Amino acid sequence: MKFRSAVDTWFYLLTLGLPGSIFIFVVVSIGVLSTAAIGVIGVVAVFTLGLPVWFLLSTYYLVEAGTLKIRSGPFSWSIPLNEIGTVKPSRSVLSSPALSLNRLEIHYGQGKTILVSPKDIKGFQEAIGQL
To answer: Is the pTM of this model over 0.85?
Structure first.
């Protein structure tokens, strides 16, 4: 079963706001900055837009064949379901493959923890056997 990440408004603001601010800076700076500087800033703007969009389009949680597979941008995790100890609600702001602050904190393996934010929390908990 595949579960998409819930997405908070703050993530959309980050995704559009930061590159938008950089773009406005470049437009205002035309004539003041060199062409090379504007090019470098443009590349930074594309990167700051590209990475969050990659996370937005690729963050999901897949439960299949006794394994929880987590994917977010260039990162991925594979957690055997039998290694999951506890799952509890969290509002932690720590970096994680979760695009919402309405998160679940999963404790697994030897003291490992990961935060996820599935849209369907109850369905996700049922799928991983933690409801």
So the answer is: no
